[in-house]
Amino acid sequence: MSKADRTRRRRIVVPLAPLLLIAGTVFGLAVGSVPISLRDIFSILTGGSHSQYDVILMDVRLPRVLVGVLVGACLAASGALLQGIMRNPLADPGIIGVSAGGGLAAVVTLVLLPQLSYLLPPAAFAGSLVAALLIYSLSWDNGASPIKIVLAGVAVSALLGAVMNGIMVVHSDRIQAVIPWLAGGLNGRSWHHLSFMLPYALAGLALTVPAIKPANVLMLGDKTARLLGQRVELQRLLLLALAALLAGTAVSVAGLVGFVGLVVPHAVRLLIGDDYRYLMPVSIAGGGALVVIADTIARTWFDPAEMPVGILLACIGAPFFLYLLRKRSGVR
């Protein structure tokens, strides 16, 4: 892609991203088993109407949509950071094991310590961070190369997944509440869940702003970054911790929603290039829009049943991942 093409695309994509997020949010509020018109949505949100749709919109759809926006934004931002740290478009919170750490912590909390369920967000973050640090330490050999981080992440993800399954087998009488969470979904998410994750999500997303410059520098390669006076290993570790915070926040509320951190940043990168000044905000908006739109489709297309959004996103993300593997391997 030439510089002129990239600049032209940025002028189109950057302003369209927030509009797509707004459109996805309105779509999520309007569409369902009980359709709500745009006029009614506006009137209810501005306090100018008290109709039979008030409870549906304010107590059911609005918190669910807002949770979906934050979940998608956090996962996309986490994926964008991981792809920059590793200089690998196949990196993703789920693929390299960060989500598995948060998932294991959440399973332990929900199954073994249900009385501490109010600590689910910090527990999921702690699990994601511990997994990230474990992956980083296992890949360390006079520095942590991106390839070693990916390989260590795959191994750690498999190990943590086995532990999760072991806990559920031993405590099979307690896993009914965990199964929907493992599939990844937003069913039943309320204002309680939104308030649960909001501080962590806002803190993580705010920290992506100062992370833009080091992420751009790391994309140049370790040698170039060191020549520019950067402390490469420290920056990589801090960005990895931020990615863990974002992934753990999303996991704690939505469960194991996969592929958002892979599909969105990579698609944005193909459109507008690697500059994180544009890549990060567009990925955040695109991730929020994707999860809300996918969740709306998942809860309406299969009515009266409701498919977890994680299953639908896996159906989208898995073929995209295979396409990337095929393209990177040079197979035609």
From TrEMBL:
Q: Which SUPFAM superfamilies match?
A: ABC transporter involved in vitamin B12 uptake, BtuC
Location (main, coarse): membrane
- CDD domains (UniProt xref): TM_ABC_iron-siderophores_like
Q: Which residues cross the membrane?
A: 12-36, 62-82, 94-113, 119-138, 150-171, 191-216, 237-264, 309-326
Topology class, membrane: Multi-pass membrane protein
Record has Transport as a keyword: yes
Q: Which domain of life is it from?
A: Bacteria
Q: What family does the entry list?
A: Belongs to the binding-protein-dependent transport system permease family. FecCD subfamily.
* Full protein name: Iron ABC transporter permease
The lineage is:
Bacteria, Bacillati, Bacillota, Bacilli, Bacillales
